[in-house]
Design a protein that fits this description.
Chains A, B: It comes from Paenibacillus rigui. Two copies of one chain form a homodimer. Chain A has 400 residues and is of the alpha+beta class. Chain A has helices spanning 2-18, 29-36, 60-66, 80-87, 89-95, 112-121, 131-138, 143-166, 173-186, 211-214, 273-292, 299-312, and strands at 23-26, 41-47, 53-58, 71-73, 101-105, 125-129, 205-209, 247-255, 258-268, 329-333, 340-345, 357-360, 363-366, 370-373, 376-380, 385-387, 396-398.
């Protein structure tokens, strides 16, 4: 893993040079882990050429054990600019007195206060947004990363099957979810799921039965769920699950830092015929998109194709949410975070590449009745794809 | 609650006027909930005088149900500046052509990208940091907020006592924690704990037994825990719990959005005499600090007093962490987030006021052996304090 992390830094340096950027200051915990192997707090400085260095605030001892990159105690932050100037003298001198150095930082997550602190100690630096740079690097997963996601897929499948054995009419979404959370936690779920988007939170996914699944939500997904109240307006509610209604089980877990994301539709007893047909349409869309999953296919084309198929099935109004609350994507990258690149949506012209991992989730929302659909996670391979999700497909009808 | 939220906005407006600030743009989910009662995504604009308005991106329907403040669909973000100019014409005109309007925003959590988006649509505005303004308002809790924290205290006590009945030698910290998480979740824990600090994460607290508790950690607390690996370098590990060693159980939960934070020290069978003495010193410090807990007492004085007492006991080197990894505080505010104001630390000159809620956590770290201590949460009242934590005190020795 040490070499892999150093290669990641080299790839970042290549990108920096291409964009005439002199360096990158990485501060977010997940990005720090990606490049160094450590999540201790501090500043990872990656110059466009030469050795990167991880300036650690706390804990230095622990960072030294974990980091693939050379660690140095940050010490007084006021001296940080001076210290960088000493260590990277050539870089700072090359910029000269009249032109500023250009450093990239993660503007998508970096709070304004943090940038201001950096500006104060590095007045000779012009700061630019390096979010996309980093997110694009993270988009392509290594063999080691794929192994973690496969393990997460195994754990979530186990939890799903265990949960089905406990499902009874009258059970609440919260009760069903608490059992799943216990299963995944015992198997090593880290206790949280990471999401990059500002103000977005993800618990262990959502279980939404009947109308509760179809409630609109701030959550940036096709079915956020009703939640326990205005202070957690997504995921499970205390509504009792009833026979016959669709139970959307969109669940995930995080093993060794890597998340999986999958959805299955379940009911206690037989569902309504039209909902079952809509569910089958979601599987048809998934099969069709699978047939396009190979290097070179363009992300937004996959999304467009799903819109066409939903339209042909007469289900456009219900696809990926309902009415004003429809979301405009079909899938999203997963990895250390649940909202990685690429996104299967308009404006994302990325061609698929081997190593991308994408959760694809065609779903149909019926206000007052529920949400049906399926979600699998896939790795793009040299010739096509590997389905990472191992859970059985099809609408799961449990006997009453 | 509707009136309470409108009063909060009035208090914010008073503060804005005092600081010659023309308005405040609130975007963070927790702050949005605090002022509107809704956590849907969008922008809450609070002018220094007149009616606030919540511009909601998603879900408008849901925000309308939840919000105490008038809701308007955000629509195209490009038009947002124009729309604000129309709605708050007097405010925008008063600024005139040569002087900029001053708007505050939450620079402690607002990502740079988000500020840049606001700057683009509101070029006539100078943005300043309003974090402290908002955090100071949130520091004083209402009766309704205190009720939520009391309920969280009840839930975490229940989970603690249940967990003790399952504790056996050889059980891992992770197993013990998974049981606690199940208990609190069934009682309505929202599935996550919120923390404001950049890059800080909190799960459901930490359980650390023996040496695992004393491992240094990036986490901004006296005992972060070993964690499951570099990708979650805090909280529980898979280390089996052994007889006689101190088991630090620093746990919390979040009920109706409000967190509680408490710590107890437990062992299977009798502990070492010196660790027991150190534990008793932590209770003595807590009792002493309690005797000072009343309106007017100065936060940093409480911290200083604890340092004096730890020193007198000959335990300075072990207090609140060990060596370079000691943290420089004794307690912290809790509420919607686990890291609220005030902080009992140097530089915090706030006098205590009725309604403040503070978790106070004197702890002693012994590298290679463990951490011992206690943590209670308190509300400051008109005459003194209310202890919110209901769990029994004293080192809990379980029979083998």
């Amino acid at each position: 893993m040490r070499n892999e992390r150093l290669q990641r830094i080299e790839r970042l340096q290549e990108r920096l040079r291409k964009q005439q950027t002199d360096g990158c200051m990485i501060t977010q915990n997940v990005d720090l882990y990606y490049f160094t192997g450590s999540m201790q707090t501090g500043y990872l400085f990656v110059p466009c050429e030469g050795e990167a260095r991880f300036f650690v605030r706390r804990s230095v001892v622990r960072a030294e054990e974990e980091s693939a990159v050379a660690v140095e105690a940050l010490g007084s932050f006021r001296e940080f600019g001076k210290r960088l100037g000493e260590l990277y003298a050539a870089l700072f001198q090359a910029a000269g007195a009249d032109s500023k150095l250009r450093f990239a930082a993660e503007f998508d997550v970096l709070p304004v206060q943090q940038l201001q602190r950096l500006q104060a100690v590095l007045p000779a630096v012009e700061w630019i947004d390096g979010s996309l740079l980093i997110r694009e690097l993270r988009m392509i997963k290594s063999a080691a990363e794929l192994s973690c996601i496969r393990e997460a897929a195994r754990v979530v499948d186990l939890a799903f099957e265990e949960a089905l054995t406990t499902l009874r009419p009258g059970m609440t979404e919260l009760e069903l979810m608490s059992g799943i959370e216990l299963s995944i936690r015992r198997e090593g779920h880290i206790g949280l799921m990471r999401m990059r988007g500002y103000n977005q939170e993800v618990i262990t996914g959502m279980i939404g039965a009947g109308e509760a699944a179809a409630v609109p939500s701030y959550f940036d997904g096709p079915a956020g769920g009703q939640g326990l109240g205005a202070v957690v307006p997504q995921s499970v509610s205390r509504r009792p699950i009833q026979s016959g209604e669709p139970i959307l089980m969109d669940i995930g877990c995080c093993i060794d830092g890597y998340v999986i994301d999958q959805t299955r539709t379940v009911s206690l007893g037989p569902p309504s015929e039209d909902l079952l047909q809509a569910y089958e349409e979601s599987e048809r869309i998934l099969r069709h998109v699978e047939s396009m999953l190979q290097p070179g296919a363009v992300c937004e084309q996959l999304y467009r194709q799903s819109l066409i198929l939903a339209h042909e099935a007469g289900l456009s109004d219900h696809f990926m949410g309902y009415g004003a609350d429809q979301v405009k994507f079909l899938g999203h990258g997963i990895g250390l975070e649940i909202d990685e690149l690429p996104v299967l949506a308009k404006g994302f012209s990325y061609p698929l590449q081997p190593g991308m991992v994408i959760a694809i989730e065609p779903k149909f929302t019926f206000p007052g009745r529920g949400v049906v659909g399926i979600e699998n996670s896939y790795a793009i391979t040299d010739n096509g794809f590997e389905k990472l999700t191992v859970t059985r497909e099809g609408w799961v009808q449990l006997h009453l």
